[in-house]
Write a structure and sequence with these properties.
Structural class: mainly alpha
Helix content: 55-70%
Shape: flat
Largest sheet: 2 strands, antiparallel
Number of strands: 4
């Protein structure tokens, strides 16, 4: 490998290193700055070493994932250079055959290096200005938190002692939880999940009988929520399957993981199309596509072998994943076009089984999320009282849960029930919590309330993302 590619590789790695260092330092300074600012106005004093530890922790937690995201392998760099400079996969070909010799290989390598040598390899500050700016902002935040004056605390300003309000389990609480238990038992979800969730709710009521303070009540309800959330984690296998498959370095495996690990069946077609597109190429080369299929088959076989040690082989999603991998990995044809057709046919032949398995796991997660949401309403908990669930509790917000087409008569008015405002679509959509089709706008309102109730647990960036997301969904037009 010669100087042209090496110089560009060093340039990209240098820029990645600067970004990683800048973002990591920014995270550490910002974390310490914000914490110091808040605690100073609360008249709380921490030892300097604690601030140092927090800053270093934030920096390390930011640096490690950033390094793996920004640091590119030779193959990724080759794809980037081919795409940015229109080199028609010549760089990727050079890297692929870097250890081979031969007249044709040498000629291709020399021609590619000649083109790469003409590309400027000078460090580009415009590529890292955002990360450097974030570092400056974080440093300013930290300096401000140290220098901003804090008014003295007079004797009259002494904060009042925090008192724990009383709590008594009422008939309303008992009836509401009993109704919730009945809804759980009649829900369309995994039988084991329903049994465990119902038992947890019944045990919660028994334990709350002797509770006299709200703090203890919140602790018990929060603990029950965590237990209920964990039930779906234990039964559902989508997370284990996704994480195991996604770690493969083969490009198509990321898209395969998304296809079999995303329980939102409404995007299954889109995910399948993206996955199949990973075997196509602009040159319409049968050899390249066949090689991609072979690489996928080997990587998928290895991943599934590993999965069989952690996921039951009889699990529906596991079976569907294995069948899809075998069908796609075994596709062959004599021409490029026929191979693409064979791949599509293989995938579509296994789509139904995958759709059923994903829908089942979506319903499982939807049940636990609904129970947690109703517990919050029954016991009037604030967002701050809700535990920080490790699993993706936002999964309640997507997916049809059935994977079946609706009859035309179900595709009626999608407005909010009062008939006043129409949102985004005239269609009805499946609500997994109710087990029936509801107006599209009604489900949007429900999901937005779900997010709004948890806004205090989200970062500003994530909050803005959801605001933009619902604004796009809710294209309002007044009914005539």
């Amino acid at each position: 490998m010669r100087s042209g590619f090496k110089a560009l590789k060093e340039k990209l790695h240098s820029q990645a290193l600067v970004k990683t260092v800048a973002w990591s330092l920014a995270a550490g300074l910002f974390a310490v700055g914000v914490l110091n600012f808040v605690l100073r106005f609360q008249y709380v004093v921490l030892a300097p070493l604690i601030y140092v530890a927090i800053g270093l922790g934030a920096a390390v937690l930011t640096a490690v994932p950033l390094f793996f995201v920004l640091y590119e392998s030779d193959k990724r760099i080759a794809r980037r250079l081919d795409k940015q400079h229109g080199l028609n996969e010549s760089v990727q070909t050079m890297i692929e055959y870097a250890n081979d010799n031969g007249e044709i290989v040498e000629l291709q390598r020399a021609e590619t290096e000649k083109k790469l040598s003409a590309i400027p390899a000078k460090f580009e500050f415009k590529k890292v200005w955002v990360s450097l700016t974030s570092l400056v902002v974080a440093a300013a935040t930290f300096i401000t938190s140290v220098l901003v004056p804090v008014p003295p605390l007079s004797s009259g300003d002494t904060p009042p002692p925090i008192t724990d309000k009383p709590f008594a389990l009422t008939e309303y609480h008992k009836l509401a939880v009993a109704n919730l238990v009945e809804d759980v038992r009649s829900a369309d979800a995994n039988a084991q999940e329903k049994t465990e969730v119902a038992a947890t709710l019944e045990e919660l009521v028994v334990r709350l009988e002797t509770v006299a303070k709200q703090k203890r009540m919140k602790e018990l309800v929060s603990g029950a929520m965590l237990t209920i959330d964990g039930v779906a984690d234990e039964i559902n296998t989508c997370d284990d399957i996704f994480k195991t498959i996604a770690v493969s370095p083969v490009a198509s495996m990321d898209l395969f993981a998304l296809t079999v690990g995303n329980t939102d069946v409404q995007v299954l077609d889109l995910n399948l199309n993206d996955f199949l597109a990973s075997f196509a190429n602009e040159a319409k080369s049968l050899q390249n596509s066949a090689t991609a299929v072979t690489e996928f088959s080997g990587a998928a076989t290895a991943a599934i072998t590993l999965l069989e040690t952690v996921v039951p082989t009889t699990d529906g999603l596991m079976v569907a994943t294995k069948e899809l991998a075998q069908a796609v990995g075994g596709a062959t044809a004599a021409t490029y076009e026929d191979l693409q057709t064979a791949l599509k046919s293989a995938a579509l032949g296994k789509k139904s089984g995958l759709e059923i398995a994903l829908s089942s796991q979506f319903k499982n997660r939807g049940l636990t999320d609904e129970v947690i949401s109703r517990l919050q309403l029954i016991f009037e908990l604030t967002a701050a009282d809700i535990p920080d669930f490790e699993n993706d509790w936002l999964s309640i917000g997507g997916g049809s849960g059935t994977g079946t087409d609706q009859d035309d008569e179900n595709l009626n008015d999608g407005s909010v029930p009062d008939g006043g405002t129409q949102y985004a679509s005239d269609d009805e959509i499946f609500d997994p919590d109710k087990g029936e089709y509801v107006p599209y706008g009604e489900l949007i309102i429900k999901h937005q309330k779900y997010i709004n109730d948890r806004e205090s647990t989200l970062s500003d960036e994530v909050k803005q993302y959801f605001r933009d997301y619902f604004d796009e969904l809710r294209q309002v037009q007044e009914n005539e």
